[in-house]
Specification:
The chain has helices at residues 4-20, 31-38, 42-54, 73-93, 108-121, 126-143, 146-149, 153-165, 170-186, 188-197; strands at residues 58-61, 65-68. It is mainly α. It folds into 2 domains: 4-70, Winged helix-like DNA-binding domain superfamily/Winged helix DNA-binding domain (Arc Repressor Mutant, subunit A); 73-195. The chain has a two-stranded antiparallel ribbon with strand order 1-2. Strand 1 (58-61) and strand 2 (65-68) form a beta hairpin. Helix 4 (73-93) packs across helix 6 and helix 4 (73-93) packs across helix 10. The radius of gyration is 18 Å and the shape is globular. 28% of the residues are buried.
Length: 203
């Protein structure tokens, strides 16, 4: 196993590339090229890819190596359903009061991720927090395509952010969270097609 001071930055760098869509769905990930890019040996790159395989962000096939995970329509729906269940559990177990505000100067996908993580952290349940963070990482790339598939996503985000910042009644926040997830589940096929057809940003 690689030393933590080498492994962790390598792992985070590869994960960021996956979450931002640097590679197209199904692309073979060249470990040797990544090692050169990061100025590290093959060991931390391989260790990172195996960890990401366990997190279902990359796929590993013996003899074929590592590839960017292909998210199916069913998987996308299932992730949304579990994400919603965990958020509602976090909301139900959190003390009354406002959620920590999210910086407004971030890109939309990052604002969404941070907002949901802030809701999770109010519950003080570390397992809920870790699970929402992990599912959010797998959904992050899809958030880059929200505006192309759905309407008024900024207004939708603002409504949820305002409701949690102002500690509005839980029933209202639950309704907003339910609507957010139902809209995306309804268009799961469009998301799956878009993710599959995304060309990536690297040659």
């Amino acid at each position: 196993m690689s030393p933590a001071h080498v492994f962790e930055p390598t792992y985070e760098a590869i994960k960021r590339r996956l979450m931002s869509g640097e590679w197209a769905s199904g692309t073979r990930i060249e470990a040797a090229r990544l090692a050169d890019d990061f100025g590290v040996s093959m060991t931390p790159v391989r260790d990172s890819l195996y960890r990401l395989n366990g997190e279902r962000m990359v796929d590993f096939t013996p003899g074929e190596g590592f590839h960017v995970h292909r998210m199916t329509e069913t998987e996308f729906r299932d992730l949304l359903e579990l994400h919603l269940i965990l958020l509602l559990a976090a909301l139900a177990t959190a003390p009354k009061g406002a959620v920590t505000s999210v910086p407004a100067d971030q890109p939309y996908p990052d604002r969404v991720a941070d907002l949901f993580l802030a809701i999770a952290e109010r519950s003080s349940n570390s397992e809920i927090v870790a699970s929402i963070a992990a599912i959010g990482d797998r959904l992050q790339l899809s958030r880059h395509f929200d505006a192309a598939i759905l309407a008024d996503v900024d207004a939708e985000y603002d409504a949820i952010a305002h409701a949690v910042a102002e500690a509005e009644p839980q029933a209202h926040v639950r309704s907003l969270l339910l609507g957010y997830h139902e809209k995306r589940a309804h268009d799961a096929a469009a998301y799956a097609r878009t993710l599959a057809g995304h060309p990536g940003r690297q040659p």
